[in-house]
Amino acid sequence: EVQLVESGGGLVQAGGSLRLSCAASGFTVDDYAMGWFRQVPGKEREGVSCISNTDGSTYYREPVKGRFTISKDNAKNTVYLQMNSLKPEDTAVYYCNRGGILGYWGQGTQVTVSL
Q1: What is the mean pLDDT of the chain?
Q2: Do 90 and 83 meet the contact criterion of CB atoms below 8 Å apart?
Q3: What integer is the mean pLDDT of 70-99?
Q4: Is-contact 81 20, C-beta < 8 A?
Q5: Within the chain, where are the H helices?
Q6: Residue 101: CB partners within 8 Å, gap ≥ 6?
């Protein structure tokens, strides 16, 4: 059974940092492209970042470029999202994903950035 479990969210002041973790089970993260999405109440879920399983290339949504870094630890079967220089507009529930919109999702972790 495929499972994705996010952790690492919380409340942080603007300019601070958080590292989100996504512990995967039921498959090997090295075999799949993995991504992070986020959602604010009343808005659609949006892709934040993803990492390829073929060449390790990464993608970042424009507002987070230079501030967020996606990575994975194959030994721990875990995907990370390092978030630096956080802004209030980064406040959202962050979800780990395998397979895009129709794929697998974690339960989400709340990130709140205060002024």
Answers
A1: 97
A2: yes
A3: 97
A4: yes
A5: none
A6: none
